[in-house]
């Protein structure tokens, strides 16, 4: 199946438009280095991965010897933006994965093959619900670790906090962002924690019900003071329980989402951006940014310094592939290394649950 991105997301694509080229600026964070192992990386133990080094802009600070690493890094980013032309800007994206959700626990319990081919297509079992999964107590604790770490850096390193906050519309990311940033004692003059809920920063869209978001009214009811972006549909029009995004399709979506973050009003002065999202979506964002593959554990956060260059040119309508996903209609009989449906329940591509929420 192929579908035009503009038709899928209701996006207007003009015949002549600017495009944005993204580059990861390396040399500032450990997560950019090939020697850093993502499986053992602990952002709280290594200062978000910020490398202890000097910067060219240090010489412009009167007392740079007494400033912290994060103060000097922020000064360097601001200097990059001051010295760059209008079509280039730099931002530090703080990419945070949600804490452990009930769907994560269910996948561990059932095993990945059985989860993918049957259980993930249900709304839950007799014990828990994983449709648009909420955080487990362990996931809540992971988000509070991030909260405490942000507060520690604010107090000890006078760290500049995000100028903008963006959040995926799925429940687990909303809860994670709230636990992470709500109630922080922010530095004087900092931007308030006023997140914008963005559809395009959601997890990769599969037939799993954990990727199916609640409707807009429900989201507003649990976080009534948060902004929901313009054009956000009442129902989830992207999930249908039959087809799934390919990686290429998700990268097109991530590119569109990033394009709505860069080059806004006073954008160069808002160089720190928080994006609370998901493992698959963060992987997609990193691909778009040209960053090395770097998997995040639940609740983890990594910053990435990004250079964005706006280029004028002729834009073309992009077609992206989605695929139908077969699954069992009853629990598989074996799923240690692969899913095997009972012979009386051949794989189908029809949803196991109703799509309206």
TrEMBL record:
In the record, what terms sit under GO molecular function? phosphatase activity
Q: Which domain of life is it from?
A: Eukaryota
InterPro entries (alphabetical): His_Pase_superF_clade-1 (IPR013078), His_PPase_superfam (IPR029033), PGM_Phosphatase (IPR050275)
Which residue windows are transmembrane per the record?
none
One GO cellular component term noted in the UniProt record for this chain: cytoplasm
SUPFAM superfamilies on file: Phosphoglycerate mutase-like
Keywords (alphabetical) are: Signal
For this entry, the protein name equals GPI anchored protein
């Amino acid at each position: 199946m192929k579908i035009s991105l503009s038709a899928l997301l209701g996006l207007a694509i003009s015949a002549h438009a600017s495009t944005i080229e993204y580059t990861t600026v390396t040399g500032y964070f450990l997560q950019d280095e090939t020697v850093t192992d993502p499986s053992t990386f602990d952002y709280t133990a290594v200062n978000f991965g910020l490398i202890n080094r000097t910067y060219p802009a240090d010489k412009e600070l009167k007392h740079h010897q007494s400033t912290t690493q994060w103060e000097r890094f922020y000064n360097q980013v601001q200097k990059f933006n001051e010295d760059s032309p209008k079509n280039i800007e730099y931002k530090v994206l703080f990419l945070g994965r949600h804490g452990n959700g009930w769907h994560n626990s269910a996948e561990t319990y059932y095993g990945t093959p059985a989860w993918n081919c049957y259980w993930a297509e249900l709304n839950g079992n007799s014990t828990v619900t994983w449709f648009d999964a909420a955080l487990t107590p362990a996931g809540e604790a992971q988000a509070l670790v991030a909260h405490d770490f942000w507060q520690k850096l604010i107090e000890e390193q006078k760290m500049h906090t995000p100028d903008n906050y963006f959040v995926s519309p799925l429940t687990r990311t909303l809860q994670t962002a709230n636990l992470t940033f709500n109630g922080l004692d922010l530095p004087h003059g900092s931007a308030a924690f006023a997140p914008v809920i963005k559809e395009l920063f959601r997890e990769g869209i599969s037939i799993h019900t954990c990727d199916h978001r609640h409707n807009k009214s429900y989201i507003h009811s649990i976080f009534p003071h948060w902004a929901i972006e313009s054009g956000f549909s009442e129902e989830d029009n992207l999930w249908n329980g039959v087809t799934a995004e390919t990686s290429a399709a998700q990268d097109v979506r991530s590119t569109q989402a990033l394009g709505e973050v860069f080059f806004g009003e006073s954008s160069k002065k808002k160089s720190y951006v928080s994006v609370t999202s998901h493992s698959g979506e963060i992987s997609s964002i990193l691909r778009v940014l040209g960053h090395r593959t770097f998997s995040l554990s639940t609740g983890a956060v990594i910053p990435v310094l990004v250079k964005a260059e706006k280029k004028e040119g002729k834009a073309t309508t992009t077609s992206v592939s989605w695929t139908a996903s077969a699954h069992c209609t009853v629990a598989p009989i074996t799923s240690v290394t692969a899913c095997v449906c009972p012979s009386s329940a051949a794989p189908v591509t029809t949803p196991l649950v109703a799509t309206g929420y």
